[in-house]
Amino acid sequence: MTPSEWPLRFVPRRSPPLWQATLITLAAFAGAIVIRGLLLGFANATGISATYFPAFILATLYAGPRWGWASLGFIMVMGYFQTTAVVSTLSRDAVILQFGLSGVATVLVAQGLREALLRLDESKAAEAKVQADLIATEARFRTLADSAPVLMWVSSLAGTREFVNRAYLDFLGLGYDEAMRFDWRALIHPDDLDRIAAEEAKSIAGGGDFIWEARYRRSNGEYPWIRSISQRRFAPDGEHTGYIGVGYDISDAKRAQADLSRINDLLAERVQAALSERDEAEAALRRAQKLEAVGQLTGGVAHDFNNLLTVIIGALDLIQRHPGDAARRERMIEAAQGAAKRGERLTQQLLAFSRRQALKPELVSIDELLIESEPLLRRAVGEAVTLTVEAGAPGGVCNIDPSQFEAAVMNLVVNARDATPPGGGIRVETHPCVLAAGEAEDAPAGDYLCVSVHDTGAGMNADTAGRVFEPFFTTKEPGRGTGLGLSQVYGFARQSGGAAIVESAPGKGATLRIYLPRVEDAVARTIATPETPTAARGPARRVLLVEDDASVGEMVEAMLSDLGHEVLRADAAAPAIEILGRKDRIDLMLTDLIMPGGMNGVELAHAAVALRPGLPVILTSGYTGETLGAAAEAPWPLLAKPYPAEALAAVIDAVMRKAPATV
């Protein structure tokens, strides 16, 4: 106990028992009496007050203010009677008053001192309790921290440790004092040090917490992955004083992540291998399907062309046997020409299916074209089936080949007629629509005009509906269909930039739709042969004919000679360029598109014009293939095979009217 704490020993926090307070008060008075006896020579008021005032103070401090006031009253009464025998009444009253005032002041001072000592004692007790609680809290925190399986620390702003737990010491393999002085940055793996330094600088600059993952060296030399989280800590006044952090081993999670990554890579490789195998299988299936289609195509083409050739050969044979029979000759010539034209239509259908047909696109109103075709469609349907045409796209314009569109609609209507029983109905309708990507096969998203043909026939199952566009696939009995009608529709739609789809179910009829891209304002490109050539023969020209097929070349040469023109022949691009390099006059070059020797007709035309600027050129072909793109962009007309002499004369006349002087 310090000297400053001595007064607290005589001031109890609670009022003492009555017996104890009485005993203390009596003891105080006894002491005062003893002192008074020693001071008997001072038998006056001052001496009396000096004698009893310590008793007042002691009674007030120990027993409480009530005992101090009671002691004062008791002494005043007793002093009153003692003083009467010594002094006069006036002097006695003055002495008693003085004694009473001094006593009151003494008790009041003692009471204030008691209260001050009690408050001081309470403050000391509270401080001691806080100190004890702090020690207990710190002990609990240390116990908790030391029992935690993770690394825990408290650091200053400079990064030095102010506290570490047992797991931290075990990780370092150091004592507490050594660990407090140890630089934790020396534990970071060299490969992670630069990254951690950069992240630390970034966190400090941003005033945020630290969260990072790195490898730290353990006391046994290993480098486990540790995820550390350091949060800022603040003093009671809000000042940033450092960090408190935890760290835990995530090596297992890292290994699991690496294993998962390897598994994902392995899975990706296996999936890729499986996809490759699937693609190869699909490619093999497509090749098999193509081979099957080619086989069907070959058989169908052979059958149809044998029929056509039978007519042509038979007609020519009869003409040769009976040259003088003019009537029979005219009939046979008409039969041969009709068979040849049917062969031309068959070729066009095959080219349309393969998307290699040379279309002649132009801007047309679909509704107007459909209305113009309605009479022909009604004759094709007959009277047993009802045909309804609903043109619902007025003003709808598409850039298509009108003749191929009419053929496609005719094929759809005839196919619907064959599938519809007597008394049934066929509905042809048009309407504008907007397709999303992938909604109709691989047609791009955009504005389209839909032409649909619906019948009330028996319908088709999914397998049959999936094959309706295959060449020579038909559900009709032999002799009633070639199986090329819907394939022509499909080829026309795809080559026109649209799509063709079928919707059907058994017992619900079938609906076939053609989606054609709509155009608002465009300029039609026409690559066409005059449909009804009526031009008369023009003046004789000197024509360079380039044709690799000898039979075709002889026929075209004969046609040109019959028109009065002089013909120079070349069977490839190289001989043609050699002829063009001479000084001979050449008025016109008529060249095939596809020829041997590595140079096609368009390239030959460019070379010819380079040698002879302004030379008129006519391109011709029966199968343009991918060369059609170059022909469409070329400045020269394309004459499609086969063509009659009148068509040849008309296109020569049209070209020569625009040509400059002879070159």
**Tally of helical segments:** 19
| Number of separate strands | 17
Q: What is the rounded Rg?
A: 60 Å
Structural class estimated from helices and strands: alpha/beta
Cα separation of the termini:
135 Å
Question: Which term fits the overall shape?
Answer: elongated
Biggest beta-sheet profile: 5 strands, antiparallel
What is the strand content?
15-25%
Percent helix range: 40-55%
- The overall average pLDDT, rounded, is 78
Uncertain segments: 41-47, 521-535
Give a description of the structure:
By secondary structure, the protein is of the alpha/beta class. The protein contains 19 helices and 17 strands. It has a five-stranded antiparallel sheet, with helices on both faces. Strand 4 and strand 5 form a beta hairpin. The longest helix has 71 residues. The chain starts with 5 loop residues before the first helix and ends in a 5-residue tail after the last helix. About 3% of the residues have low confidence.
